[in-house]
Specification:
By secondary structure, the chain is an alpha/beta fold. The protein is built from 11 helices and 11 strands. The chain starts with a helix and ends in a 6-residue tail after the last helix.
Length: 283
């Protein structure tokens, strides 16, 4: 069933768990995520980057996710990850996304508030949830690239001001994670997270969670993280699955037989994440 991001995250916030938000680029990735959600009886957020929309086409994405959601017996939200342009965000709203992210984190605080409010006014009028970001994650992923020197953690007082002046549905904060693959082990600022959660008392989002140690994820969830974005780990699983066929069966030319192992590898990753986040059995 297709629902809004707010419906999924408000419940997660109230009951104290996190929901996985998994990026898709093609049908096999989507199928792996939905099948994992069904088997785990977990709510799930399917999200696409601007790069994924450019690659697959928004009409193809909408059609695939709508079919998957209609057949699914668990709550499914369709979310735009890191919307950076007005045109892309409005296009997603017009094409049936139930949740969008306006990423104004590269702007000064007041400007971030202004651009977020512009999107909220339109999205909320259409019944679409809105996620915003305060603070900046370093790293590279899809069309997002932030040098380490430009990364900055979220300030609690700014978070209070931001939420008070926007009324955003969920807030992505920077506490030490990064986009893409980590060069070392990330060190999360749990004290900062705890402070922000208590001040805001609302759904909090963690980006750049692929590669973060499980104990750190568990602690982050216990302190109030309700949405966790996973992209890189799925890409790695997909690639490893394809490689296994190419290496072990170089004569294979049927794309279905090449992609089937990749799908199974992705399912394993998604199911493990759902169990880790505490959303298994929450559908």
């Amino acid at each position: 069933m297709l629902v809004t991001g707010k419906q999924i995250l408000d419940k997660a916030h109230k009951e104290g768990y996190a929901v996985g938000a998994f990026n898709i680029n093609n049908m096999e990735i989507l199928q792996a995520i939905i099948e994992a959600a069904e088997e785990e009886r977990s709510p799930v957020i399917i999200q696409t980057s601007e790069g994924a929309i450019k690659y697959a086409g928004i009409d193809y994405i909408k059609a695939m996710v709508y079919v998957a959601a209609q057949k699914a017996s668990v709550p499914v939200a369709l979310h735009l990850d890191h919307g950076t342009t007005y045109e892309t965000i409005i296009s997603c709203i017009r094409n049936g996304y139930t949740s969008v992210m306006i990423d104004g984190s590269h702007h000064p605080l007041e400007e971030n508030i202004a651009v977020t409010n512009e999107i909220i006014k339109i999205a909320h009028a259409c019944g679409v949830s809105v996620e915003a970001e305060l603070g900046r994650l370093g790293g590279v992923e899809d069309n997002i690239s932030v040098d380490e020197k430009d990364a900055r953690l979220t300030h609690p007082d700014e978070a209070v001001k931001f939420v008070k002046e926007t009324g955003v549905d969920s807030l992505a904060i920077a506490i030490g994670t990064a986009h893409g693959k980590y060069k070392g082990e990330p060190k999360l600022d749990f004290e900062r997270l705890d402070t922000i959660k208590k001040l805001l008392n609302m759904p909090i989002v963690l980006h750049g969670a692929s590669g973060v140690p499980e104990d750190a994820i568990k602690k982050a969830v216990s302190l109030g993280i309700n949405k966790i974005n996973i992209d890189t780990d799925i890409r790695i699983a997909f690639t490893e699955g394809v490689k296994s066929v190419i290496v072990n069966k170089p004569e294979e030319y049927d794309p279905r037989k090449v992609l089937a192992p990749a799908k199974e590898e992705m399912k394993k990753v998604v199911k493990a994440k759902m169990q880790l986040f505490g959303c298994s059995g929450r559908a």
